[in-house]
Specification:
Elements lengths: L15 E5 H5 L9 H14 L18 H8 L3 H13 L3 E5 L7 E5 L1 H7 L4 E5 L5 E4 L3 E5 L1 H6 L5 H14 E4 L3 E4 L2 E3 L11 H13 L3 E6 L2 E7 L53 E3 L6 E5 L3 H17 L6 H23 L1
Antiparallel strand pairs: 1-6, 2-3, 4-5, 4-13, 7-8, 9-11, 10-11, 12-13
Helix pairs in contact: 2-3, 2-4, 3-4, 7-8
Length: 345
Amino acid sequence: MSAHPIPTPTRKQHDICKVPLSFFESLLRIPDCIFAALRCFGYILVSTIGMAAVKKGGFTWTKVIKPEEFGEYARCTPQWAEDAIKWLTTAGLIRVDFVDGKPSQPRYRISPDLTTETKGEPIKGKCKECQFIGMFETRFVPMPRTFFTKVAPGVDHATFVCTAVVARFTHHWNTERGLWTEPSELTPHDFRLTGLEPGQIKNGLDEAVRLKLIKRTNRAGKASIFESCPENWSTVEKRPLREITPPVRGAKDPAKQPSESGDEKPVKKAETPIIESGHFRTAVCPKCERIVEVEPISDSESAVMDQKQAAEAQRQPPRAGPSRETAHRKGKLADLAARVIEKHA
């Protein structure tokens, strides 16, 4: 009785969402106090950017999303989710539009700059590190949609961002093979992208390993080896809603408060902490060859750059191509014909 060969299992194709590199290089540093902003941004991203890029001739908008739906997704109260959406809009990370002009029917999309990253298109700007002005290469990281639909509402902030960093360095994708992972050596410096303290990073990684979201191989005296496990992400269950009490600005130690008087003072309403917005445009600098934050440039700087590129293009010799080679061959044939005619004359 002959033994039949065991068939090789086919690689599972994940439904991919192209996540801008800026999400990992800048957005992960959003403090835990407004963690809902990170999840709400992911909800908008996964609802608009998938395997297909932006619709031809325009941008993809979400359906109408209410604060209650954002809150259910981010596992927080609708009020806290509404504050997170306001922060994302103020920071320029998302755009909002109202269907038929009705504020009660908002729809969203990510900013055009971040959409450019999802398509890998070059952007024009200035390097924040070396001040180079020119064109920058943008990149995206392939992430299964389950990272936003399952992992985001199912884990705490530290676990979420630590898993994102591991995926940032271990995920690879192309149209033929799909998504695959490769183990990578990651140092504590690589986890700076999370903006967390070392103790928080350790707890986040431990929980991600426990949930089998990632694999970790510890090595004595060396950096650990990490690998993402996206095949397990769909098994994560939603965690209970998180009740968040926004901190009160300017709160003082109760022991140092003055003694109470007969006059009652109005209590100031708790407010969301102010976070300065940034450009959140990340790309590869062709000069210093690092992943840097790209700052927008003025129209005058852009015009100077265009003139410089045009001048350099004129100084460069024409590239060898079919037209140049054909002209060369025609010239040789003409010389040969002239010599034959002269010989028989």
